[in-house]
Amino acid sequence: MPDASTPKDVQNQRRLVTRMLRHWDERTSERRFPSKSEINAQVAGADWAHCALVAVAADLEQSHFLAVGPKLLDAPGPSLEGQPIGACPNSSLLHALLAYLPRCLESVGPLAVSGSAQHGGYDILYRAILLPLSEDGAAIDGILVAANYRDLRPGEDKQLRTRREVVVLSVKKGQIWEVFDALLGAWDKKVVLSLENGRATLRSKTNFQKSVHVVSDMTSRLERFRFIAHG
Description:
The chain has two domains: 7-168, 2-Layer Sandwich (Beta-Lactamase), CATH 3.30.450; 176-229, SH3 type barrels, CATH 2.30.30. Helices cover 17% and strands 34% of the residues. The protein is built from six helices and eleven strands. The strands form two sheets. A six-stranded antiparallel beta sheet has the order 2-1-5-4-3-6, sandwiched between helices. A five-stranded antiparallel beta sheet has the order 10-9-8-7-11.
């Protein structure tokens, strides 16, 4: 069963996603992604117990664990370090989060996920983030998974058992995005000029025309927006 937490602990755990995104963002610099070695136990501190580091293979099923924090597993057991991701126990939160690896690779950006899952035979609510990593700063060869959770309490809305939210995070000035133009039926590469009041002003790199888009659309509507690179 998930550990009981004090109100202070719960408040701290809710900030885990924000903290890990900040660690990731601070280390991107001029690159698209930090390397696997740049986000580790020394950087994450106590949060490392809530993290798993995956080395990504061309065949995703051949990907393997470099590190697995105990909070993501439902019970003590043999170390998963060096093991393929298929060795992850089906009854753990980590197993549920591994299903989002393809989405993170497709989105090529930080992916936030929240919802309900089974963890050690109990219903839980969780918040998680998947962060792409790269040794050369361009091609994704690792993903950091971080999550916190709590029990699904008796009497809570049944909607919480099935509701899912998946969001690509972090729109910033200078980034390069592709925006699908429905009229032309083609993708247009644009740079983020400014952000204000939840809206982003973008300028086309082909015709230099400006357009304004809702930031939440850019981070969730993958059929229309694709993150390309940090400018």
